[in-house]
Amino acid sequence: MSENKPYIIGITGGSGSGKTRFLRQLLESFNSGVTSICQDDYYRPREHQLVDRNGEFNFDRPESIDYEHFASDLLALSKWQTVEKQEYTFNNPNANAKKIVRKPQPVILVEGIFIFHYQKIAELMDLKIFVDAKDYIKLQRRLTRDRVERGYDADDVLYKYENHIMPSYNKYIAPHKEEADLVIPNNTDFKIAAEVVKAFIQSKINQHKV
User: Fold this and answer.
1) Residue-wise pLDDT tens digits, 106-144
2) Is the model's pTM score more than 0.85?
3) Could you say which of 36, 65, 105, 123 would form a disulfide bridge with 109 (CB–CB 3.0 to 4.6 Å)?
4) CATH number at residue 40
5) Which residue, among 67, 49, 69, 66, has the nearest Cα to 58 in the 3D structure?
6) What ranges make up the beta strands (E) of the chain?
7) Is residue 46 one of the residues assigned to a domain?
C-alpha cells in the first residue's frame, strides 16, 4: 500500500440539508478504497450535555461533541491506522450499541455539522463540501427524520429547531460555507453533484493503485 496520506473529504451542512444521505450514496458506490468517520458517533453522554434556560438538553452546540477523540481518530486513520468506537444511539434505551470499526482507505469521508468549525479536524481536510438547502426544507426533513427514527414528537422538534438548531447553524455552520471548495444545493436532489464527486473520488483511489 502506498504510504501517501489518504485524501480526506469533509462533508457538512445544516441539519436536514441531506449531507448524511449524500455520504451514504458515495459510500454505496464503492466496494473498497473509501471509508468514513462521522461526527454523530462522538456525542458526549447526556449527563455531560448543556441545558438551555428551560432545562432542555441542547445537543446542537460544538461542546456537545468529544471533538478531541474525533480528531484523534481521524488523525489515526490518516496515518493508516484502524480505529474502533462504540456506536452512539442518541440516548435511545432500546437500541443496542454496536462496535464501529473504521479501517484506513485511500479516501476518507468526514461528515458532521461542526467539522469545519473544529480547527484540528478542518486542517486535516483536502476538500471541503457544503451541502445546502432552504430552511423550510431542512425543517420538513428534520420533522420527518426525528419522528420516524428517533421517536420525537413535532412540538419537541420545532422547539429544538427554533431554539437550538437554527441559532447554532447561524453561528457555527453557515459562516464556514464560504470556506467550502464545493457547495451542493439540495432542495430537490443532488444526483449530478454526486456523480461528479464519485468520479473525483475514483480518481484519488486510482492514484493510490499506481
Assistant:
1) 999 999 999 999 999 999 999 999 999 999 899 888 888
2) yes
3) 36
4) 3.40.50.300
5) 49
6) 7-12, 34-38, 50-51, 57-58, 83-86, 99-102, 107-111, 127-132, 182-185
7) yes
